[in-house]
Amino acid sequence: MQPKTNLLHEVWDKNIDLLARTEVELPTINIEELLASFFCPGPFYYYVVDFYDRRIIHMSPKIKDVLGLEPQTVTFDDILNRIMPEDMNYVANAETTVYDFTQKKGWDKVTNYKTGYCFRMKSANGNFQMFHHQALVLSTDTTGGIGKTLNIHTNVEHLTTVNSHKATLTGIGNSTDFFVFDVPLHSQLSNTSLFTKREREIICLMAAGFNSTAIAERLFLSLHTVKQHRKNILGKAGASNSSELIALCLKAGLI
């Protein structure tokens, strides 16, 4: 699992009460008919993921043409790892935004809405291109937790290369509901509970200009331990490098 991919798993882990606690049967549906209600103006693939264990249970063969991945062996993380690292904070924030709004609207309506937003993915030709993501909850367990979801990724590079950084919730069936949200681009570091005491010490020393060797000497740690801490810190913050980490922490008032 890539460090940036951890951001999405952390969003789902933090909202674990909203996900299925038991495996739920996939309802009898005609996916091809269901796809007719989705906006797919370009090459696309679709898959069904079970959020009980985050396992793909149905994969469209078209993923081979669109992403160059083998449909028989591809995993959920294989797909997530194709998202451009610089877009991962935005994707995690989009998921959080949709979860928060749906809870306020009424979680019992979670199957009534289709989620949509864009991000860049590495396509079959090796280039990062703009994709439109759409998701629909197909089943919930007895607690209302999200079970199986249908996800569709459409290559829209021929339509736009600019991301509006918005997320949408669209009512399905007879619903005319349509909601648009502005999604923050960067990691939302709101409090120090994200980091351990040792990690906060290392962040402060990094901000003061200490390199890994100096930090190890200062805290009486091995160089390997400090490097592992720094890797974990970057992953938690969703930062690509130390400069981005310090900027995020300063903005959030953590240092």
Description:
This protein is of the alpha+beta class and 255 residues long. The protein folds into 2 domains: 5-182, Beta-Lactamase, CATH 3.30.450; 192-252, Orthogonal Bundle (Arc Repressor Mutant, subunit A). The chain has 9 helices and 7 strands; from the N terminus they run ααββαααβββββαααα. It has a 7-stranded antiparallel sheet with strand order 2-1-5-4-3-6-7, with helices on one face. The longest helix is centred in the middle third of the chain and has 18 residues, at 88-105. The protein is globular, with a radius of gyration of 20 Å. The model has no long low-confidence stretch (mean pLDDT 88).
List keywords for this structure.
255 residues; alpha+beta; Beta-Lactamase; Arc Repressor Mutant, subunit A; 2 domains; 7-stranded antiparallel sheet; 7 strands; 34% helix
